[in-house]
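Final report, section 2: Outcomes. Of the targets proposed, DUF1292 domain-containing protein is the one most frequently requested by collaborating groups, and we therefore present its record in full.
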Amino acid sequence: MAEKKELYGYEEDDILTLEFDDGEEEECGILGVFDALGKEYIALNPLGTEDVYLYGYKEYEEDYELIDIADEDEFAKVVKEFEQLAVEEA
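The predicted structure is given below as C-alpha cells.
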C-alpha cells in the first residue's frame, strides 16, 4: 500500500517539487503568486518548515518558470512586498 504523503494543509495541486543544481529535491507548498516591481513572483513554503522561498515567476500556456532573484536590491524589495501582503492577509 502506498504511503500517504503529508500535505501540511496544502491541496495536492498546490505542491511543487523544486530541483536544485546539486540534484536535491524539496517539495514546497505554493503560498501564492504576487505582483511587485512590475513583475510576478511566487512564494513557496518547504513542507514541514516555516521557511519561505521567493522566486520570479513566469507562466506559460501549459508550463511555468521559476527565476532566481540574483539582484540583492530587487530581492529586498520583493521580501518587503511579500511581508506587507502577508500582514494584510492575517
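The longest strand covers residues 25-36.
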